[in-house]
Write a structure and sequence with these properties.
By secondary structure, this protein is of the alpha+beta class. The protein is built from ten helices and 13 strands. The strands form three sheets. A five-stranded antiparallel beta sheet has the order 1-2-3-5-4, with helices on both faces. A five-stranded antiparallel beta sheet has the order 7-10-13-8-9. The chain is globular, with a radius of gyration of 20 Å.
Length: 316
Amino acid sequence: MSTLSPPVLSEINRVIESIFPAMSPVVERVVEGASTWVYRIVAGNETFYLRILPEGGASFAPEAAAHTLLRQKQVKVPAIIHFEHCNDLLQRSIMVTSAIKGQSLLHSPELSEAVRDAIVVEAGRDLARINSVPVAGFGWVLRDSPETSLLRAQWPTYRALALEAWTADLAYLGKHALSTKHVAMLERLISQYDVYLNCEGGWLAHGDFDSTHIYQDAGRYTGIIDFGEIRGANQWYDLGHFHMRDGEQHPFHLETALLRGYGEITSLPSDCERRIRFTSMLINVRALARGLQKRPPNRYTQHQIEVLQQDIAFLL
């Protein structure tokens, strides 16, 4: 699929006016979402978001279906207001969602620890419900078809997904970020926990889950946003990603509260911490290698290295 040039604002306005006729909506481009172009729409007293896929031929159909299914499960995610597999004017797939009220936990420093933890417990329950949706395969959910009876992903096995770039990533990190000792430890851990790479079926993962996606309003949990990176994975992917990011942008940690809520919906085995840390290790190695190839080291990559070293020590 080829990535097309961004649409001009006049085209955006025409599309939005056709969706919200006679409402004189106010439109502005927002920086949210790395995988799509996003526009905030204020129509009447309500706020909506228009998302546009940059790739020609790609479709929001799987994401729209996931939102709809999750809302049927009473998960607090944005509602789908409008969806087109391919808009005639823009020649791209578009989707309009409702807004989740409030702001993310990252931007809620006024909350007490007790209130914050209660919000995260609720988010943990919703995350468990999200991770209960089956996906055929592993990796990015395929966006090449309007068919959504079953979400499909690119890799046939979790092992193939997890190890796709493992050797190359370790070689890169060994030259630029990690000691020879830590690289050897990582290679040992892949062998030691080989059984964790077995997974009979894929499950829906948010794909980029951290505290920025948990929203609250006046101290009450309002929902989870941004499903632009959904994928098929094992049960531990979102928990592993959250573990990797926990404490990265704020001085408090939320993983314990998240797991408390998650465990109320899905039974967690006695080795769940090892599974979470092992999955976090896999995600971290891939993210760290990709990040350092794109930009110089910063406080975020330093956080990732520290978490990776902690996980290695725990797992050995």
